[in-house]
Amino acid sequence: xxxxxxxxxxxxxxxxxGIAGALAAYRLATAxxxxxxxxxxxxxxxxxxxxxxxxxFITSSSKAPDSPFCGExxxxxxxxxxxxxxxxxxxxxxxxxxxxxxxxxxADPPNPTNPNRFKSYYERLxxxxxxxxxxxxxxxxxxxxxxxxxxxxxxxxxxxxxDVERWYVDAEYExxxxxxxxxxxxxxxxxxxxxxxxxxxxxxxxxxxxxxxxAVAIDGVALSDxxxxxxxxxxxxxxxxxxxxxxxxxxxxxTSCLPLCPIKARYEAIIHIEKALKAGAILRSQCVVTKLExxxxxxxxxxxxxxxxxxxxxxxxGRIVVLAANGIENPRILLYSGAGNSSxxxxxxxxxxPIKQSYALAPKPLFPFRxxxxxxxxxxxxxxxxxxDFAGFKTSLKNDGWSSVAATITAPRGASIPPQHxxxxxxxxxxxxxxxxxxxxxxxxxxxxxxxxxxxxGA
Length: 459
Ligand SMILES: Cc1cc2nc3c(=O)[nH]c(=O)nc-3n(C[C@H](O)[C@H](O)[C@H](O)COP(=O)(O)OP(=O)(O)OC[C@H]3O[C@@H](n4cnc5c(N)ncnc54)[C@H](O)[C@@H]3O)c2cc1C
Ligand code: SF4
Fold this sequence. Notes:
Blueprint: E1 10-15, H1 19-30, E2 35-38, H2 50-59, E3 91-93, E4 105-106, E5 116-117, E6 122-124, H3 147-151, H4 161-175, H5 181-192, H6 209-218, E7 233-235, H7 270-278, E8 282-284, E9 287-294, E10 301-308, E11 313-316, E12 318-323, H8 326-337, E13 374-378, E14 395-398, H9 403-409, H10 431-437, H11 442-453
Parallel strand pairs: 1-2, 1-12, 2-8
Antiparallel strand pairs: 3-6, 4-5, 7-13, 9-10, 10-11, 13-14
The structure holds flavin-adenine dinucleotide and iron/sulfur cluster.
């Protein structure tokens, strides 16, 4: 969008400092463009050392994705901001975060009386949501762009896999992605035509012992509903270093990637924000863009209006404005500005990626908690004629034992005593269950908690 002013202050104004904004800012700043990044959130405690964030996580009882980034250490970077006047320092934007009235909704189907709440969240922070992402790096498949043509669902994209493939490669080399070229050739390309024009920058992360045991058990098996497909356990490409890459170390395998890698082996957008700033970009944090002021034709942006955390309103202009404020906030800004909505599609069709998590105790030790949270998956169901009837899906094998379920059942202690189930007496695996239902104590209790919660069976 070109602003309707003769001398804009910046060549490019980028709204949002997540991975989209960070990579754009870096490329444009290195091309000697005058770049401004406007970011609604504050700066993570990284400036006080990563250990501060690790400590925040360790001492947090919730172990929620935002727990490393909370605390009093979120500092303003903009000298115009008086830190004494700051309102509460950090904003973690979650659907039900504030008094139940801070929800995002799925807009379709519109149902004002019973809207569906969007259940995911993002980090309102310099560096955005990759602060807490898991780093799994999965490309779209060629058929994902042609859903209507192939399966009569949705609409086709106006671009194809071929159009974006070189940009995938570019991003992979910037971030550092570890993956298996052999598996890609033998599996993704053969099955899904998802070719690669360049090898992965790094070899795949090492499969966990747990993955290998599951592969032995299920590789080659056909499910009755999908007789043509055979299960196959493959490694998952990750934006996590399998060896030293661009001055960051190789993964040490301690399974806390989500929400924070203590050693920066997992890629985070802050890496490219720092690079962009070194190349000359300017960052204004704690500046919430409220509106794009358009020219009379509503075709170009005159000014980007934003509000600082201290309440002051300000504006800025740029030859080009890049909206990189994520899938939730971009539509909000556009709708509020009355911009770019001739299709009436802005703000509609928001989709999360729904997940279903299953847990089980294995008959033999699998030794979880070795390696990133996921090192392998089953991707065979990502595409096929069944997509006429239901969505494609993939299955991650998790290395983190019960920890993901901990938030639901508050394992290992438990928040309440679960009803005892006659078929699966120890399925829940909380201490309350062991003590109250199974009457375990002493060495037996200790051993059972150990078996369930840490090293051996959890899968
Ligand atoms: C728990 C979790 C795990 C995930 N794991 C994975 C994974 O393994 N693999 C994967 O591919 N994806 C994963 N994702 C998704 C992925 O993290 C996001 O899709 C991605 O980071 C989005 O990048 P973005 O730059 O578009 O937006 P964001 O990173 O959200 O950045 C947008 C930025 O814009 C700022 N902003 C918002 N509104 C305004 C405004 N009005 N004015 C100024 N600034 C504004 C925000 O504060 C934010 O910093 C995960 C997400 C979650 C929640
Ligand atoms: S396993 Fe540990 S070292 Fe490896 S990426 Fe995850 S958090 Fe970082």
